[in-house]
Amino acid sequence: MLHVHETAFRHDDQEPSAAAVLAAAHRAFAADPARNAQIVGDLTAALGRGRNCLVLTRRVAHLDVLTALLAEHGQQALVLQGGMSAADRRAAVRRLAEAKAGDGVLVIGTTPFIGEGFDAPALDTLFLAAPISFDGLL
Predict the structure, then answer these.
(1) Bridge partner list, 109
(2) What Pfam families does the record tag this protein with (predicted)?
(3) How many whole angstroms separate alpha carbon 62 and alpha carbon 112?
(4) DSSP code of 14?
(5) 3 state DSSP class of 48
(6) CA-to-CA distance for 73 and 41, rounded, in angstroms?
(7) What would the mean pLDDT of 106-134 be, rounded to a whole number?
(8) Which of 69, 80, 67, 132 lies closest to 110 in space, CA to CA?
(9) Which residues pair with 125 in a beta bridge?
(10) Which helix (H) or strand (E) holds 106?
(11) Is residue 95 exposed (0-12), middle (13-18) or buried (19+ Cβ within 10 Å)?
């Protein structure tokens, strides 16, 4: 089941297919306070219903913003991103492996890091917090 959550964010710049313009748009929406507050509100509501959520974004800076906002709302996320130590990654994967339906687990990661081959059966809700133009990333 797909639920689209429209935001008020608008980026009225040049042709979005130009790489530099697309990168600027990604930076802009990752830093947009209203958009990030909406994402966090939707996540908090889903977690309150016992959903086990995976949040994907493209940029580490966006991951950091969302993680900090979620912490302000009492939600501690398992973070999966490039540059993690092997011990931190093992701990996160172990916690995911122990998760059960209804636990309210929250994982937030970067699309390039999680991407293809990621398997966490307990996760039941996906939040795409950034646009994805290539389905091979999922």
Answers:
(1) 56, 80
(2) Helicase_C (PF00271)
(3) 13
(4) S
(5) helix
(6) 9
(7) 84
(8) 80
(9) 53
(10) strand 106-110
(11) middle
Distance between CA atoms of residues 92 and 94, nearest Å: 5
Number of continuous H segments (helices) and E segments (strands) in the chain: 5, 4
Contact of 96 with 105, CB cutoff 8 Å: yes
Q: Which parts of 1-138 fold into alpha helices (H)?
A: 19-30, 33-48, 60-72, 86-98, 111-114
Task: Classify burial at 67, counting beta carbons within 10 Å of its beta carbon; exposed 0-12, middle 13-18, buried 19 or more.
Answer: buried
Select the more confidently predicted residue: 47 or 30. Answer: 47
pLDDT of 57 reads: 92
Q: What is the DSSP letter of 76?
A: P
Average pLDDT score, the chain: 84
| Domains delineated in the chain | 19-137 (3.40.50.300)
